[in-house]
Write a structure and sequence with these properties.
The structure holds two protein chains of two kinds. By secondary structure, chain A is mostly helical. Helices cover about 75% and strands about 0% of the residues of chain A. Chain B is an alpha/beta fold. In chain B, strands 1, 2, 3, 4, 5, 6, 7, 8, 9, 10 and 11 form an eleven-stranded mixed beta sheet that branches. The longest helix of chain B is centred in the middle third of the chain and has 29 residues. Chain B starts with a helix and ends with a helix. The chains are: A mainly alpha, B alpha/beta. At the A-B interface, helix 2 and helix 10 of A face helix 3, helix 7 and helix 11 of B.
Chain lengths: ~500, ~350
């Protein structure tokens, strides 16, 4: 059973991931690689991607580390604030870009125009990843209590205890959070595409430009290859990080709990200011205009496409995710395989499909395969820890008591896995709703989704289309937020 | 009974006979003309907008396996070679070809047929320059007092932007054009993403702060036409015919069309007199047909003398490099010398 699931998964990965990547490799190495690398223009884009990834990771960690220490304390609304902190992570990139435009764009609420600056791109990266970093650092920070106290008892000053004991123990967590933020920012697409203004572009954006505007497949492949190599290196480092066994820790009482609540609420309010600006700026009339738009894809069509594609791809991603989790349950080596689709950029997947299956260009099947490929790891990675922590004895007990394997699965395992399945589904579905890169590459006009409808309107100047884009972004934000709230409430595992 | 049958046949017929035309985003024609065509032929027309001229063509190439349309309109001479090399078009010797201006027939294989032509050209706001001196020669634009008045389009994302970049290459040469752009950059030229952003957001005529804009030679006439009597004379004017860039827009039948007969009728229709006489005031291009009468308002849009043209082969070979070099100099602030050194 598990074998069959693994086989099917491999078959799908072969079709939807490895063969297309192989084609990119072939074309990239064959024609463009040396040429593209020798071209200072592309080298500049590569260096910028590295710089953006590193700066984003650094900034995010600088903010997340003190936050993680504050969240070790017990104070009112702690759980709610923690749940809120991961909300940006499920927001589609066009929504985040629009939110930042609403706050700090040429028509922004604050009247300060940061469009096309590195500062804006970095702010967006921090907005996106702070919750992620916090979630990774917090469990370790909570368990530092014992070691730190031991160091104090042995005579270390608080500062020295932190420097010599706390920090070294935190390093793996800092490394994994930093690497994840690096991976996300290095290969970011929607944010630099919509906010970079031509001056700043990651490799991912450059590949898209090469494809859409210049149709330079060989150069695009070469750049994609460079990006893949860098990401693979980062992912390898990520998987190599040690985990230290630490004594379990708990929350500590706070001297001034309400002050802490107030301070942290203010901080999150500041963090979410772009989202507030987005909702503040939405004009209901623009929503009505978008509904019946003649110049752009009307809202009902875009919304219908988004929901339809997300649902269809989810039906494909669900068995894939479960199959992967089942196969990887007892084998750690498969972890890399599960991470792999997360590393491969959506634009690369789209490019690979165009190269590998020319006769299928423009068919819906390719789009759904790309969607499923990008969504199933999210589901699987939420499911896997729950699956691994299921005690084998439970299932054996059920079998001994006379349940068939089928019945044992449905009556014992499944109910225990449901919470993890729900939060994985929430992540997968919101990622599908917000998918941007692959949709943009594999796009057909009648398949315009909500994210593409936003992009389409942003491409046109003037207050009208901008207002419509804002309204659509707000709608999409509500949709993903609602999904996240209904299925997950911030409990799930991310990253 | 017979009636119902006839209606059903008509319905089935009507459903099968939809023709999709892929166009660039600036496409527009009189709705009455479209309705008339549909009535006369029983074909139903659907227009798909695929972005700017380059993006539209690339869409067609990237969906070759399952074509998204039957007919493509709007690829221009800067991209013609790409379309022909990608082999996405079917040859069609339309009976209308003999009515077209011979100089526009740039594709001897008759896969891309010219529909219209025009010039990308600098426009200036007459009101702003009423008491101020206009730049006298193209190189004057590079002086700070003019560079900070100019808005251009990014050639990577906009076809008039690309046309203007090519005009500067033709005018100042492979070595000189980068110095010209570096001076524009230092002087404070503004770069917009596309034509409509440059024209409707940054041009002083529309409450922007730039009285010089890259647009078309027909734009002043269009201002008069849409002003509903407010302007007797154009509020804007053209500058520097020697920096104007000649563009031809083509129509073609996409390989893989399920309705070749219908697609051919659509191409014939694009070249027919009623459409040719309608497109000047819809898309502000000059008709390719010799016997098409120009509307009155085109007296404000004389064809520029001495505009630049580049050989299609040269454009095909260098287009990407020019865009890259332009990006390095104008957007990333590199020096022309460094960029020229990197060529080797």
């Amino acid at each position: 059973m598990v074998r069959l699931a693994g086989g099917l998964l491999l078959l799908f990965l072969g079709f939807a991931l490895f063969y297309p990547l192989f084609r990119i490799l072939l074309l990239g190495v064959g024609e463009g690689f040396v040429q593209a690398l020798g071209n200072p223009y592309y080298l500049g884009r590569y260096l910028f991607s590295l710089q953006y990834g590193l700066l984003s990771a650094l900034l995010t960690l600088t903010l997340a580390l003190p936050l993680a220490f504050l969240f070790r304390l017990r104070f009112p609304l702690r759980e709610a604030l923690l749940a809120w902190s991961t909300l940006p992570f499920v927001l589609p990139t066009p929504v985040v870009a629009l939110a930042f435009l609403a706050l700090l764009g040429p028509r922004g609420v604050l009247g300060v125009d940061l469009y096309g600056t590195l500062a804006l791109l970095l702010l967006a990266a921090v907005f996106y990843n702070l919750g992620l970093a916090l979630r990774i650092l917090l469990p370790v920070a909570l368990r530092l209590q014992g070691p730190l106290e031991a160091a104090r008892v042995l005579g270390a000053t608080p500062f020295r205890a932190f420097l010599r004991v706390g920090l070294p123990l935190l390093l793996p967590a800092l490394g994994s959070a930093g690497l994840l933020v690096f991976i996300y920012a290095f290969s970011a697409f929607g944010v630099p595409l919509l906010l970079g203004g031509g001056r700043y572009a990651t490799l991912e954006v450059e590949v898209y430009t090469l494809l859409a505007h210049r149709l330079a497949l060989a150069e695009a492949s070469a750049l994609m290859l460079l990006q893949l190599l860098t990401l693979a290196l980062a992912a390898l480092l990520y998987l190599r990080l040690p985990t230290y066994p630490l004594p379990p820790g708990g929350l500590r009482p706070s001297a001034r709990p309400w002050a802490l609540t107030l301070g942290l609420s203010l901080l999150f309010l500041l963090l979410f200011a772009p989202l507030l600006a987005l909702f503040l700026e939405v004009d209901p009339k623009a929503l009505a205009r978008a509904w019946t738009s003649e110049d752009f894809t009307p809202l009902p069509l875009a919304l219908g496409n988004s929901l339809r594609f997300a649902l269809l791809a989810f039906l494909l991603a669900l068995p894939l995710g479960v199959a992967y989790a089942a196969a990887a349950r007892r084998r750690g080596g498969l972890d890399l395989l599960g991470l792999f689709p997360l590393m491969v950029s959506p634009v690369a997947v789209g490019l690979g499909y165009l190269l590998a299956y020319p006769s299928l260009r423009g068919s819906l099947f390719l789009l759904l395969a790309a969607y499923a490929l990008l969504a199933y790891p999210l589901l699987a990675r939420a499911l896997l820890p729950a699956l691994r922590s299921l005690p084998e004895s439970l299932l054996q007990a059920a079998r001994v008591l006379g349940a068939t394997p089928f019945r044992a699965f449905f009556r014992v395992e499944l109910p225990l896995l449901l919470p993890a399945l729900a939060s994985g589904s929430a992540l997968a579905l919101s990622a599908l709703l917000g998918e941007f890169g692959a949709s943009l590459v594999l796009w057909r006009p009648e398949w315009t989704t909500l994210t593409l409808a936003i992009y389409e309107r942003l491409g046109r100047p003037g207050g009208g289309p901008y207002q419509e884009a804002l309204a659509l972004a707000a709608l999409l934000a509500l949709l993903s937020g609602l999904l996240f709230y209904l299925l997950d409430r911030g409990r799930g595992r991310i990253g | 009974m017979l009636r119902i049958l006839a209606a059903l046949v008509l319905l089935a017929f009507g459903l099968a006979q939809e023709i999709t035309v892929l166009t660039h985003s600036s496409f527009s024609l009189d709705k009455a003309l479209i309705a008339q065509f549909e009535r006369e032929t029983g074909l139903k027309l659907r227009f798909l907008k695929g972005g700017d001229a380059g993006e539209t063509l690339n869409r067609a190439i990237l969906t070759r396996g399952a074509p998204i349309a039957d007919v493509i309109y709007g690829l221009d001479n800067t991209f013609l070679s790409r379309a022909l090399e990608a082999d996405i078009l079917l040859p069609y010797r339309s009976p209308e070809i003999r009515n077209l201006k011979a100089t526009l027939l740039l594709d001897p294989s008759f896969r891309a047929l010219p529909v219209d032509y025009g010039w990308v050209s600098l426009n200036y706001d007459r009101a702003y320059f009423k008491d101020r001196p206009l730049p006298k020669a193209p190189q004057d634009l590079a002086r700070p007092e003019y560079a900070r008045l100019l808005v251009v389009q990014n050639p990577a994302t906009s076809s008039p932007g690309l046309a203007f970049l090519m005009a500067t290459v033709a005018r100042f040469g492979e070595d000189g054009y980068l110095d010209f752009w570096a001076a524009l950059r230092d002087g404070g030229v503004r770069v917009a993403k596309g034509w409509s952003e440059a024209y409707y957001t940054h041009f002083t005529l529309y409450k922007g702060d730039r009285p010089l804009v890259v647009s078309y030679t027909t734009s002043p006439a269009a201002e008069v036409y849409y002003s509903e009597g407010r302007y007797q004379e154009p509020p804007t004017g053209n500058l520097f015919p020697e920096l104007s860039f000649f563009q031809v827009e083509f129509v073609g039948i996409l390989k893989g069309t399920k309705n070749l007969e219908g697609a051919r009728r659509v191409v014939d229709w694009f070249l027919s007199r009623p459409v040719q006489e309608n497109l000047p005031t819809e898309m502000w291009m000059y008709p390719a047909r010799r016997d098409a009468r120009l509307p009155q308002v085109f007296r404000f849009a004389p064809e520029p003398l001495g505009s630049v043209r580049l050989d299609p082969g040269v454009m095909a070979k260098n287009r990407e490099r020019w865009i890259e070099e332009w990006t390095k100099v104008v957007l990333q602030g590199q020096s022309p010398e460094a960029v020229r050194r990197a060529r080797r």
